[in-house]
């Protein structure tokens, strides 16, 4: 098999796994957003990062186990890198949601759902090239 095609297939397979894992994190994140906003009466822009953080923690654990294996880094070091890289996704997600809600006057929850695509692209890219990259073995 052509090594380039094999690498492309692996990347596509990883993205599909990443998206499936992300769907669970998104459900967690959106559930927390809705509950904190509707029942606890937080402002949606405060509830957004809380739900996002809990969702990405779920995603980290599942991606570490299923998507980007084998894992060679210590857990805490990799989790720290993951959280740092997800700050970019969280920023894109939050800005996009606030823009859609405040400027385009879309319901905050629908805005959050629509903004998931922005964070997914950022999160996958940073996860693949930095957090879960394979280390070359030193001779």
Describe the model.
By secondary structure, the chain is mainly alpha-helical. The protein has one domain (3-131). 81% of the residues lie in helices and 0% in strands. It has four helices and no strands. It has helices at 3-38, 44-67, 75-103, 108-131. α1 (3-38) runs antiparallel to α4 and α2 (44-67) runs antiparallel to α3. The longest helix is centred in the first third of the chain and has 36 residues, at 3-38. It is elongated.
- Helix and strand content put the structural class at mainly alpha
Number of domains: 1
- List unreliable stretches of 5+ residues: none
Main beta sheet: none
Brief sketch in words of this structure:
With 139 residues, the protein is mostly helical. Helix content is 81%, strand content 0%. The protein has one domain.
Main attributes of the structure:
single chain, 139 residues, mainly alpha, 81% helix, 0% strand, elongated
Can you lay out the helices and strands and say which pair or pack?
Elements: H1 3-38, H2 44-67, H3 75-103, H4 108-131
Helix pairs in contact: 1-2, 1-4, 2-3, 3-4
